[in-house]
Amino acid sequence: METMSYPMGGGATRLYNALAHTLSSSGGSSNRVPLPLTHLDPYQPADTNPDPDFCQEQKGSPSCPLDPAQVLRQCEVALGDEPPRFHRTFIRHSNGNAGAIRVMQWNILAQALGEGLDSFVLCPPEALSWSRRKYLILDEILTYRPHILCLQEVDHYFDTLQPVLARLGYSSRFCPKPWSPCLNVEGNNGPDGCALFFDESHFEFLDCVSLQLSAMMIPTNQVALVMILRCRSTRRCVCVAVTHLKARAGWEWLRSAQGSDLLRQVQNVVQRHSASTSAGSNLHIPLIICGDFNAVPTEEVYCRFVASPLGLDSAYKKLSQDCLTEPQYTTWKIRPTGECCTTLDYIWYSQDTLRVDAVLDLPSEKEIGPNRLPSFSYPSDHLSLVCDFSFKEDG
């Protein structure tokens, strides 16, 4: 396996005025209405409070696109007094069309949960402030510039992530949890949920379905987004899904049921799309399913994905010597109940039609540090997963 260096960028205390005028709505409301889960448009509150750091006066049109490289450089210049970031490298596995589809999976940690309910006992409160974390989150995304971005625990979609990333060329959808725990935190920014972004220069949007996952025909509090995209260069379609399954021990049976429901729903979306087109290439649309599954690799929901007739494999097994073992951790945190170091996050893909060209490695225990995650160096308790895929010629 070839190792390719990919240094991290730095966080920032401000993205200067380059992100000005990204929001046009005003006013605010804490009365949020859940998304009609069969609707294709994202949940949109009646009013959204603009993020003041992104609403400063700037010459030029607010709709003018931003240059990602320039914004990232500005972040790095502003990093000055920040702790160093992790240095991560891409482990290359093939000589295919590297970067044909770059996918990032990341539970970014809901702001309300990070400050209110998650109790990261060794993380300084200042490291959990949104005024710091939002720049670290944007910096992580801009460092790797994924074509497809799958996020969980998003509770600052409308005031920050959607408007900023839209100016960087991303289109997106958002699906909130019906009963988000964020709403129980004083001063919350609305419900958290899943968000799916895609680079409009790389993909065309074809379809999207928002799902409330069920268990034994009963709706649960967990959601998913399933989107059909068409690659502009190859004209081939891909189906992308993002989800966040039920957390905590004792709920293994529920996660298994939710995973089964998601697999069924993804298959339905692909079959419906294939039936609506006469193009033969759409009959075998590759799948990419990202998420925080809250499940270790020995759990039943993981085994269901491995055994699925959809032919899925987990991309991050490519980090192991035999390409058969998941990494030791994708999340590492310390709460009042103790230390948690385990693998919960995955990028599943259709192994018959997609090839894994490269996988971003994970920081070492030394790099993460004794206080674990989140920290001044990293904004979430979950590490981002990034993979480069390409279409197989005979897929």
UniProtKB/TrEMBL annotation:
GO biological-process terms attached to the record: circadian rhythm; nucleobase-containing compound metabolic process
GO cellular component, one term: cytoplasm
CDD domains for the chain: Deadenylase_nocturnin
Protein name: Nocturnin
Cofactor entry: Mg(2+)
Similarity field: Belongs to the CCR4/nocturin family.
Keyword line: Biological rhythms, Cytoplasm, Hydrolase, Magnesium, Metal-binding
Main location: cytoplasm
Positions of the UniProt region annotated as Disordered: 43-62
